[in-house]
Amino acid sequence: MTAKTSPESPLPIRSVLQMVAQWIGRLGTVWVEGQITELTARGGTVFLTLRDPVANVSARVLCSRFVYEATVPRPVDGARVVMHVKADFYVNKGSFAFTALEIRPVGIGELLARLERLRQTLAAEGLFNVERKRRLPFLPRNIGLICGRGSAAERDVLENARRRWPAVRFTVEPVAVQGPYAVAEIIEALRKLDADPGIDVIIIARGGGSLEDLLPFSDEALVRAVAACRTPVVSAIGHEQDTPLLDLVADLRASTPTDAAKKVVPDVGEELALIHQLRERGRRVIGGWIARESAWLEAVRSRPSLADPLREIDRRAEQIDSLRDRSRRCLAGMLDRAADSLEHLRARLVALSPAATLQRGYAIVQRPSGEVVRLAGEVRPGDELSVRFSDDRVTVIASDQG
Q1: Which residues contact 108 (CB under 8 A, 6 or more apart)?
Q2: Residue 78: how many CB atoms within 10 A of its CB?
Q3: Structure confidence at residue 328 as a pLDDT band (50, 70, 90)
Q4: Cβ–Cβ < 8 Å for 154, 172
């Protein structure tokens, strides 16, 4: 119910707080999950804070010592629990708190089942796909390192990396790597390093531990923060057998912090040996190529056409002279044969011509029309005929046949 108020008729604060208590009381009892922090016991009451690690919010919880001691095993600071609580608003103090009616610790089996469900959900979103993973730079200029304060993981990464490449630089962000504040501090350090353009790769490192100790590295908020990073991220959590969800979303997984240093930073000795090997191989390749080209050039230079160019010109000139003489002889022979053939043909024509026959004493008898008379029976008395001799022709009149 909304109370009608105005500057002239305000409500007393006690009335407002009583209304708030009534509204909260309507919630009844609910089951909630969270992580216990700041657990203290005073007399018959246990005071604790129930924190949500994902949203980084918390609420006060009051629990009777009987309910607390009836929980097996007893919750400790940092434990994950499920509580059956009732919301209470204390009017006199104007404060809000939950009253715990029952507490159930979250067991290992249930934790593993929840992690598996979260893994499947994130995998379905594609956060673990190989295609989205980025390649690490060959030689990072500056490496961001997120690890525990003064931890063995920090020493392993720094010492092994500097032993491999002494000039490598690190920007270390010390954070809590377990407990209720670990996720928030790691996400904040990750955001800070990812925003720095001088950082080429980020390593998140932690030594081994129990499943509960490594739970922050399977937190959904941290996994999504790593997936959203623009800088390549290397996960180096625990030992080889430890596989938090951070390993699946990171661009590269290292089995240990020492392995992370080996995978991120190249070994200067190995690289110098490789450079020497490649240099020698390049020298052999170039030397072989130069030797082959020199041999080819020497072979080309030793050819007669290049060794003595005038000799080839003289040889070609002799060939031209020989071909010219041969063509002249062939042409002269052809002309002689053609002249002989022409002379023989002319002689035959002369021998077979009518003029030659007339010169031998023969005559050709023709009619006025030019028709040649071949037989005497074709001539009648009185026919006018033309007799052609070799030097002239005579017109005659045919008489009787004798």
Answers
A1: 211
A2: 18
A3: very high
A4: yes
Distances (CA, A) of 322 to 309, 316, 318: 20, 10, 6
User: CB within 8 A of 240, min separation 6: which ones?
Assistant: 255, 256
How many angstroms from the chain centroid is the CA of residue 21? 63
* pLDDT (0 to 100) of residue 53: 66
At 2-28, the pLDDT tens digits run 667 888 788 888 888 888 888 888 888
* C-alpha torsion angle, residues 286, 291, 297, 299 (rounded to 10): -150
Residue 248: what residue type?
Answer: L
Of all helices (H) and strands (E), which one includes residue 202?
strand 201-206
CB 17 within 8 A of CB 91: yes
The mean pLDDT value of the chain amounts to 86
Looking up tokens 């006690």, which residue turns up?
14
User: Could you give the 3-state DSSP secondary structure of residue 291?
Assistant: helix
Mean pLDDT for the stretch of residues 290-296: 92
Cα-flanking dihedrals φ and ψ of residue 369, to 5°?
-75, -10
> How distant, in Å, are the alpha carbons of 184, 250, 377, 391 from that of 364?
146, 131, 16, 12
DSSP structural state of residue 1: -
Q: Within 10 Å of residue 111's Cβ, how many Cβ atoms?
A: 15
Cα–Cα distance, 368 to 68 (Å, whole number): 168
Alpha helices, DSSP H, located in 353-401: 354-359
Once rounded to an integer, what is the mean pLDDT over residues 85-101?
Answer: 87
Is the pLDDT confidence value at 369 over 90?
no
pLDDT, residue 349, reads 81
First CA to last CA distance, the chain: 179
- Kindly report the length of the chain: 402
Q: Report which of 130, 137, 141, 147 is spatially closest to residue 186, judged by C-alpha positions.
A: 147
